[in-house]
Amino acid sequence: xxxxxxxxxxxxxxxxxxxxxxxxxxxxxxxxxxxxxxxxxxxxxxxxxxxxxxxxxxxxxxxxxxxxxxxxxxxxxxxxxxxxxxxxxxxxxxxxxxxxxxxxxxxxxxxxxxxxxxxxxxxxxxxxxxxxxxxxxxxxxxxxxxxxxxxxxxxxxxxxxxxxxxxxxxxxxxxxxxxxxxxxxxxxxxxxxxxxxxxxxxxxxxxxxxxxxxxxxxxxxxxxxxxxxxxxxxxxxxxxxxxxxxxxxxxxxxxxxxxxxxxxxxxxxxxxxxxxxxxxxxxxxxxxxxxxxxxxxxxxxxxxxxx
Amino acid sequence: xxxxxxxxxxxxxxxxxxxxxxxxxxxxxxxxxxxxxxxxxxxxxxxxxxxxxxxxxxxxxxxxxxxxxxxxxxxxxxxxxxxxxxxxxxxxxxxxxxxxxxxxxxxxxxxxxxxxxxxxxxxxxxxxxxxxxxxxxxxxxxxxxxxxxxxxxxxxxxxxxxxxxxxxxxxxxxxxxxxxxxxxxxxxxxxxxxxxxxxxxxxxxxxxxxxxxxxxxxxxxxxxxxxxxxxxxxxxxxxxxxxxxxxxxxxxxxxxxxxxxxxxxxxxxxxxxxxxxxxxxxxxxxxxxxxxxxxxxxxxxxxxxxxxxxxxxxxxxxxxxxxxxxxxxxxxxxxxxxxxxxxxxxxxxxxxxxxxxxxxxxxxxxxxxxxxxxxxxxxxxxxxxxxxxxxxxxxxxxxxxxxxxxxxxxxxxxxxxxxxxxxxxxxxxxxxxxxxxxxxxxxxxxxxxxxxxxxxxxxxxxxxxxxxxxxxxxxxxxxxxxxxxxxxxxxxxxxxxxxxxxxxxxxxxxxxxxxxxxxxxxxxxxxxxxxxxxxxxxxxxxxxxxxxxxxxxxxxxxxxxxxxxxxxxxxxxxxxxxxxxxxxxxxxxxxxxxxxxxxxxxxxxxxxxxxxxxxxxxxxxxxxxxxxxxxxxxxxxxxxx
Lengths: 307, 641
Known about the structure:
The complex is a heterodimer of chains A (307) and B (641).
Chain A (H helix, E strand, L loop, with lengths): L2 H17 L15 H12 L14 H5 L4 H5 L3 H5 L16 H12 L10 H4 L23 H7 L8 H7 L3 H6 L4 E2 L9 H4 L33 E2 L1 H6 L9 E2 L10 H5 L5 E2 L1 H5 L1 H4 L14 E2 L8
Antiparallel strand pairs in A: 1-3, 2-5
Chain B lengths: L8 H25 L3 H8 L3 E17 L1 H7 L5 E12 L10 E9 L4 E10 L3 E14 L21 E16 L4 E22 L2 E6 L2 E15 L3 E14 L2 E3 L14 E8 L2 E14 L5 E25 L5 E27 L3 E20 L2 E23 L2 E20 L6 E16 L5 E13 L9 E12 L4 E13 L6 E14 L3 E22 L5 E23 L2 E12 L5 E13 L4 E14 L7 E13 L1
Antiparallel strand pairs in B: 1-2, 1-29, 2-3, 3-4, 4-5, 5-6, 6-7, 7-8, 7-9, 9-10, 10-13, 11-12, 12-14, 13-14, 14-15, 15-16, 16-17, 17-18, 18-19, 19-20, 20-21, 21-22, 22-23, 23-24, 24-25, 25-26, 26-27, 27-28, 28-29
């Protein structure tokens, strides 16, 4: 094992040792949980609901066992009770509350699931958990991503787009338009979802070398083109699938980034055998290069990807 | 002989089998659920249930190019289980086994996109989930009218066609062995079967080969997580087995794409089945040693071994008129290992400040060798990536969030491959340096405005079309009024340049949506614009002769207009419509209009009647070719409780 990995492992173990005991993150000393006070006004919204682990703690063994109650998320509500309700005196996860405070409240329990949330683009621009998730759903749904606007739209089962993607498209309508192009991943049919490839709780990896997470997302379904191969198409191996493809949608067949294959290939390959240029009409930018170079994603037999 | 001859027989048998399965499943489920019987039982036991089941029938009329319809929409006629959604929250003795059971089925019975989800669990004890997704993919694009097909003029079309089905089954089981420890198991099976065609270049001619699609993947994983008050520790191991039959066959004697060429191929067979085994182990530590501080450390190791055998046989007449024959076999193996290490931290303090940072390391090593007909082939790759990011976040007001940061990343690549002889190794060392900044402002409670900026410079990009300079500017807004009116808008501009070549890529994505939503009425409309301009000048040099200058200016100028309306005049009736219009006026001009009207009525007893009509028209704007128009009628009956 290399030195850097050894150092990382030792550091991790030290971290584990030093922090294995102690009070939970962000722990306050909440007053004795008394959900009955909250339910007096908010009973319909936050009352026990089948299978939902969040509200009240009256239902759900694990939530109650950790002392869960309304103030586990909404923090100290004394001022709210004294004022007889209202906003601004309790963390309501609403439009007037600090998004960061809301996210911190959720991550007090869910930090192990999403430790990088505050490095994400969503967190940077004040998108908090409550912008997409609804924890007081009438029935427990792991997606739980809908608000009133989308409930009506998603009540039509003939619309295949899943709940998570509908939530994304509320803000990313421009990206959603790419999925309307003639060659597209079938978001509208439920064949893929935004979360099939993207993690909304993590940082945007598309700006890194190797494209959006490399090819890992693509190879979940397109397993045959991931190799490994003896002869790799280097751009694909190093840069990722987006070196040649527009993954959301494109007017071009196979979602290539150019309409003609030759246009795509000649953007990188500027040295050719002589016969390619002698008959430029056949091998020009309008050519279907993969009619010969058919194993274009990689080959174990031929270095020119002829088969 | 048509390569794809008989391809329609396979879908026909599939059609009948799935329709029968749909009917059987619907009858079985209806009986088991008792059309409300389950509801009665659950209610008596102190539990509850809800559900909905719709059996539908579709009639499809397609005019024009049916293959294009299959590529684009691919909905078939006939009966199917349109929708089944069942949720049970048991009471009584059954609650000791599970406190929630859910079943959701979409479009079962020969539809191109089918899904099944089953969940069961008991809070604090276990959670089980099973997903099945099946999707059909068809591609057979003619590209040119028959009269314009000419291989000599690079207008022979695309020899690749696809007609296959993907099926993925996933199951996960999480066991909470204590209130702090969780053990998880998972299984993932993926299967892809069907037909396809592909091209072969041999003896200066091009031939269309059949390529059966037959691949499968099986993946299992097991994991363990333990949560202390401040630290969570997790381990996971995974094993994957992948197999691909990988075969190409010439179905019959062929003179190739150039009839004037003397080349004739009497037979061709390439069998290259391969299988791989992959192991991976990963560990993760998430710690919160101080209030506001979160640290994550994760590492992973993966290893893959691939083994392949090869047999290639062919005979025919060569381009010079001389008979030729090929008959060779071979065998080979490839090994790949990769390591990942990530260290991240987030520190929030003072209620307004945050500091984030992280570093990542990725190493990939790959080594492979294959001998075919006594001739060795060898390939080797090493890719090392290291990077770190850091940023600061400041929320001076409850309604304002500001952030900025930078990243630095380095990727070293060494690789090469050879057929016999020494292995040429080429090296590349790219460095990515970038900055990012964003601002989010919420001047009113339900209004937000976001600005985002990202700039990166990459030294020594890997290809001539890779970015050496990338800049992205994005703006988004969203406003919801109390009266139900809401609007959102977004604009994104990305500019990519390769400063050592003439390669340029400008991309604009813009969208505006307006809506009005109340309890019984929902109206939405929006317009999106996509503009892309990719251009370069490439002086392509040959091993002989003068170079050729290729000037490319590729454009997308697309618009997407949509509108939806849903109205619920009574609690038991809703009607809705949807219009979607897409048009590209750029380098490949097409348009698609899609109009849908749907209505549903529900009786007091819970019976459902659903009707719908859909009209889709697709047109190529540059030629009167490859167009289709389709009308789909749907009717469904069901029950909901």
